[in-house]
Specification:
14-stranded mixed sheet; five-stranded antiparallel sheet; 29 strands; about 45% strand
Length: about 350
């Protein structure tokens, strides 16, 4: 990894009518906190269940959770991003969040993105649907890839590949009574494709340069703490193009530090130490990169302790986004392919 020009990695806040739209929802729907959602979890992960995701990886991960069969086998939803409450500065919650994007076979109504909140203590988890609120009091599905999630305080930054970050707030989870396949406010009732809880988008930070936003993480070992994102590049699609990764300083409230012009400039940026990088994390001066291979071949973990030379370690099939539980010296990742889905950890 070598330093590169951070200028393409600039963010501008683009809140639009979101605050007004969210307040309208808050008047119509009951708010629920994360602990309530976890207490109402309706699925159970299997700790150290199937090892199919790990393929030829040796040694196996130190710990892992497998999703229920319906989530492991579905071809409608694919897990992408992951973040831990420790990344958020809330290790007491002992919770993970995983983003899934909707990619059904054939034509189907767009359902956007859902988040799975999983308690490491109880192994119980529940899906929450992300929605884009409207000023008329309704909302729509969030149609993005959601390749990464970064968690800081109560804020969740979800990567929006060509646009930047969409921001969601754990203090803005609402319960919905609709139990059908409708979305938004229809016939005087709110619906969410059968999901009980929705999280409306509350803010946005739009990229103003040429950068893509393929994954996301937080580095709590920098001063101030940093928001991380970077670019997935497949050499078969973009020959000769190197992916990049950047870090933005975070203010105490969890928002990127912006100048007087309202733009947040990246503190630094680097070229990535390989192609097909699905997740990147920096911690105590070292970089960790998850590298994909194929749906049947093991990926790799690239560890760059000195900022330049990568050490290659065996990783599971289909590795995606990364997060860090620094106090426990743990690196966590999620795998995406049907029958091979797991949330797992290896030592930093």
């Amino acid at each position: 990894m070598t330093a590169t020009d951070p200028a393409p990695f600039r963010l501008r806040r683009n809140t639009r009518d979101l605050p007004k739209a969210v307040e309208t929802l808050a008047k119509a729907l009951p708010a629920r906190d994360l602990k309530t959602v976890l207490a109402d979890a309706n699925r159970t992960a299997v700790r150290k269940g199937s090892t199919s995701a790990f393929g030829s990886m040796s040694p196996k991960p130190a710990d892992w959770y497998c999703f229920e069969e319906g989530d492991d086998q579905t071809t409608d939803w694919y897990p992408q991003g992951v973040a831990a409450s420790a990344e958020a500065g809330r290790p007491d919650l002992r919770t993970f969040v995983v983003s899934w994007y909707w990619r059904p076979e054939g034509k189907a109504t767009e359902r956007g993105v859902r988040l799975s909140f999983l308690s490491a203590e109880t192994r119980r988890y529940r899906h929450v649907l992300l929605v884009e609120p409207k000023v008329d009091g309704s909302y729509a599905a969030v149609n993005i890839h959601a390749g990464g999630v970064a968690w800081y305080g109560d804020l969740l930054y979800v990567a929006d590949t060509s646009r930047g970050f969409r921001v969601f707030d754990l203090r803005r989870i609402f319960e919905v009574k609709g139990d059908d396949d409708k979305i938004g406010k229809q016939g005087g009732r709110y619906h969410a494709f059968g999901y009980r809880y929705v999280m409306p988008q509350v803010d946005a930070w739009a990229g103003t340069g040429s950068a893509r936003f393929s994954f996301a993480a937080v580095d709590r070992s920098t001063t101030p703490h940093s928001l991380i994102s970077g670019e997935y590049v497949d050499p078969s699609d973009d020959p000769g193009v190197a992916g990049r990764v950047a870090r933005w300083p975070l203010a105490p409230d969890g928002t990127p530090v912006a100048g007087t012009d309202g733009t947040a400039a990246a503190a630094d940026a680097f070229t990535l130490a390989g192609a097909k990088i699905q997740g990147a994390l920096s911690h105590k001066g070292a970089w960790y990169l998850s590298q994909a291979a194929s749906s049947t071949v093991n990926g790799s973990l690239l560890v760059v302790p000195d900022g330049r030379t990568a050490q290659v370690r065996k990783f599971p099939v289909g590795p995606e986004d990364l997060t860090c539980w620094g106090e426990k010296n743990q690196l966590w990742c999620v795998t995406e392919f049907k029958g091979r889905r797991a949330l797992f950890t290896v030592p930093l």
